[in-house]
Design brief:
By secondary structure, the protein is mainly alpha-helical. Helix content is 84%, strand content 0%. α4 runs antiparallel to α5. The longest helix is centred in the N-terminal third of the chain and has 24 residues.
Length: 122
């Protein structure tokens, strides 16, 4: 189970550091591809991007270093909440093509939450 949780954590970390970095560092390109960037102010998009990067780091660093490892499932909760918000945003704005990915990421994040709090705590 521990290996499966590490795989989930690394995958979430990669997805969210990429997604967040795209929003923060490539805003103009994100306006071409993301409904969020088209309808939200740049500061809101950048804030979401920074939070995604922090969540991604929280998936890996506390668990890998052993420093405050309880932050890993807390970061997973934050990413799960992000995916709930993203799903609602996409449905509200008629961008349902992203909803399946949002739901998969939500499920993976919840797997990490349950796994790291209950099944295989760090």
């Amino acid at each position: 189970m521990n290996v499966g949780l590490w795989i989930a954590q690394v995958l979430l970390g990669l997805v969210f550091v990429t997604s967040g970095g795209f929003k923060v560092f490539f805003y103009e390109k994100s306006r071409e591809r993301l409904k969020l960037a088209q309808v939200s102010p740049r500061s809101a998009v950048a804030t979401i991007g920074v939070l995604e990067i922090l969540g991604a780091l929280g998936m890996i660093l506390p668990a890998a270093t052993g420093i405050m490892p309880w932050l890993t499932p807390v970061a997973a909760i934050g990413l799960a909440l992000t995916m709930i918000g993203a799903t609602g945003f996409n449905v509200k704005n008629g961008d349902a093509s992203h909803v399946p990915v949002n739901l998969v990421l939500l499920l993976v994040a919840m797997f990490v939450v349950v796994g790291r709090f209950v099944i295989a705590p760090l």
